[in-house]
């Protein structure tokens, strides 16, 4: 049954049949329409989200490395105390001098403080101690004034940087650079303004006031002598992530005198791990959506099966005639499978159309940040693949039934 | 050309067994024109369907052109029907939404030969020409008279130049004038060398044939040249 004319006729007949029963065909494929529309919309939104998040990581800098203190798993608490685990300023200094794959490095320490201007008093504001290299590490520019310099750091000068929201919240008038504010009651000179980035990642959290001081100043401000420090570093190039991680491990383990059997008492992470995490989250969502879609395709498939059974019984006489003039069981089978697939494809077409409309709808929600929602081509192909499978699987029983009809009995039908 | 021996066909309806053919043996040669006659329920259609490879006998053998067909698979039977047999149904059996030409072409959809579209159309046109319908090719069955419709069905049966042309009561639904037309057509096909078997219960129709086979209760009770057949003689003699 591999001859050209048979297939041409079969396709023509299948579409003739669809056209002859337009309404019925559309209603039958409703399940497939719903299934394909939802899979299309979900994939579109996820793809959009992925592009957006990856772009965000990109601006974040795909070439960042972090080091955190970390208590190793499965080791008794008293084995490594906090003072063993904690990152210490001299360790960061040594890393700065010896870490080959890194072009900028800074320790970061946070504390909360009370900030005062002439008119305002803010409690619990985040104050971060940083080295001048912080701007390079975190890709956050100074938009007015100047960043810290080595003299600020080494002389422990009472200077600070504020972000734009801090300027607003403190109601500073005129050019804030050159004005002073109080941090925990002591006076600091504002030398520059850092741009505010809101944590836009998942659209949560508005801009908050931030104040930055030289690391040596934060060291003084911290209440405890054993305060928390993390390290943020910028790679010389993004491909160096793995090398940078092993270099950091080597250097820190040596500094801490860890033996081969000892576990790491710190954790080194590169941004690519976050990307991987996001990707696995996205594929999780896709899998769940796939399940939902599976159910609607099942419903759609059953609809197709029923309507094909109706079609077979309506056309029993025609089947009898075709068999009488020489159609083999295989030819009849192929004919009806093709019709089921055609039916399913109609559902697929409509479903992809509706899915795209839904995606466009989502993309146009203001401020959702989902402008990048789009239907990737592979999703279209996949949908049609699904439809073909649904058509074949659920068309199989009716097609089988048609192919087994006895020609004489079929001709006598009605 | 056709050789059947001790053919039996038993229909099972629930627990009941209906013995439609009980040991039929017939030989039919090339270019014969045979009428099969008998009372209603005598097994004519059953025999015809078996000869047309539409049905399989319960037992017995059927050799068509030297090939044993009674034990063939459904697929093989389909090929035999497509390539060797032209079947004309009493109720025409045309696709109502298709043109006469498309209806005649239908067997080619299932043909194992590959033909160019031109060759297919030429074949269908030639078959329609032979039944005198060259000017009605684009009409659908509802736009044709009863006799014309039956001639389209005959053209379809002739399309593949079948070894035998089988017609089960081809004139049952026609008035006497169109019956005459159709029978004349059969006669001229016969004159061109076509082997033809017609089921009928009209002696008039049988009188167009050379040979008459009579069935009763699934058995052959008479098999003789038409001019010797009593029924045919009483109806006005063989022509
Ligand atoms: N599909 C069937 N199932 C059961 N019995 C059948 C079937 N087809 C035919 N028969 C029986 O077989 C016998 C022969 O039937 P068949 O149709 O061959 O008769 P016929 O000679 O063609 O009659 P008619 O002149 O009325 O067409 C009848 O008794 C009929 O009832
Ligand atoms: Mg009959």
What would a concise description of this structure say?
Chain A is of the alpha+beta class and 414 residues long.
How are the SSEs ordered, and which strands pair?
The complex is a heterodimer of chains A (414) and B (239).
Chain A: H1 4-20, H2 22-28, H3 30-60, E1 64-69, H4 82-85, H5 89-98, E2 102-116, E3 121-130, H6 134-138, E4 142-145, H7 150-154, E5 159-163, H8 164-169, E6 180-183, E7 186-194, E8 210-214, H9 215-221, E9 230-235, H10 241-255, E10 266-270, H11 271-314, H12 316-324, H13 329-363, H14 377-403, H15 407-412
Parallel strand pairs in A: 3-8, 5-7
Antiparallel strand pairs in A: 1-9, 1-10, 2-3, 2-6, 2-9, 4-7, 5-8, 6-7
Helix pairs in contact in A: 1-13, 3-11, 3-13, 3-14, 11-13, 11-14, 13-14
Chain B: E1 2-13, E2 16-28, E3 33-38, H1 44-51, E4 59-64, E5 67-68, H2 74-84, E6 85-88, H3 100-109, H4 117-130, H5 146-158, E7 164-168, H6 176-191, E8 195-199, H7 203-206, E9 211-216, E10 219-225, H8 230-234
Parallel strand pairs in B: 3-8, 3-9, 6-7, 7-8
Antiparallel strand pairs in B: 1-2, 1-4, 4-5, 9-10
The site of adenosine-5'-triphosphate has 13 residues of chain B, from strand 1, strand 2 and helix 1.
What does this structure look like?
The complex is a heterodimer of chains A (414) and B (239). With 414 residues, chain A is an alpha+beta fold. Chain A folds into 2 domains: 9-57 and 279-412, no CATH class; 71-264, no CATH class. Chain A is built from 15 helices and 10 strands. In chain A, strands 2-3-8-5-7-6 form a 6-stranded mixed beta barrel. In chain A, helix 3 (30-60) crosses helix 13 (329-363) and helix 13 packs antiparallel against helix 14. Chain A is elongated and about 105 Å long. Chain A starts with a helix and ends with a helix. Mean pLDDT of chain A is 86; it is low at 200-204. Chain B is of the alpha/beta class and 239 residues long. Chain B has one domain: Rossmann fold (3-Layer(aba) Sandwich). Chain B is built from 8 helices and 10 strands. In chain B, the strands form 2 sheets. Chain B has a 6-stranded mixed sheet, with helices on both faces. A 4-stranded antiparallel sheet of chain B has the order 2-1-4-5, with helices on one face. Chain B is globular. The mean pLDDT of chain B is 90. Chains A and B meet through helix 1, helix 12, helix 13 and helix 15 of A and helix 2 and helix 3 of B. Adenosine-5'-triphosphate binds at residues 11, 13, 18, 20, 38, 40-46, 201 of chain B.
